[in-house]
Write a structure and sequence with these properties.
- This protein has one domain.
- 75% of the residues lie in helices and 0% in strands.
- The protein contains six helices and no strands.
- Helix 3 packs antiparallel against helix 4 and helix 4 runs antiparallel to helix 5.
């Protein structure tokens, strides 16, 4: 983008952070319940039908993990592009907050859809907490890598954007 930040590169990093957090959360919950990889196997069954052999299970876990990371990286690219706009134009900060909320609802909605379709639900609190942790991880990364935008939230309260000039682009 215009100030030396690549939305695709940063979005991939942000998405990888969120995807890693979400995968680690699901793995920890699955291990705590004595069923490692239960969640990716449920998702694989939903996407591809039954998963038979151990080799098929491993392949399904790998494919689901690739799809999981790719999808969240795409979300990350979109959020980073919005961050770059909001870094130049304060009026877009609220859109960024709304986009983060939409990302959380998207994660939760996909979990709910899997619950309905699967009949072997992943508990709502697990889906919601995982999505929240992923969005918080992405937000933390964006906050740390865009200090000018972070400072704008401290300097100009939401709703007062029209009363102050946009801040200088980040370096």
């Amino acid at each position: 983008m215009s100030h030396g930040h690549s939305a695709v590169q940063e979005g991939a990093i942000a998405g990888a952070i969120g995807a890693t957090i979400l995968a680690a959360w699901y793995f920890a919950v699955d291990v705590a319940h004595g069923q490692p990889f239960r969640t990716p196997l449920l998702i694989a069954q939903l996407l591809f039908g039954g998963v038979g052999s151990d080799a098929g299970s491993l392949g399904a876990i790998v494919v689901v993990t690739i799809v999981h990371f790719t999808a969240i990286m795409v979300v990350g690219v979109g959020l980073v592009a919005l961050v770059h706009v909001a870094a130049r134009e304060l009026e877009w900060r609220m859109a960024l907050i709304i986009a983060m909320a939409i990302a959380l609802v998207l994660f939760f909605g996909l979990g709910y859809a899997a619950h309905i379709a699967q009949g072997q639900p992943i508990p709502y609190w697990v889906v919601f907490t995982g999505g929240l942790l992923a969005v918080l991880g992405i937000s933390w990364y964006l906050w740390r890598t865009h200090p000018g935008l972070a400072q704008s939230f401290r300097d100009v309260p939401l709703g007062n954007e029209g009363e102050s000039a946009s801040h200088a682009p980040e370096r």
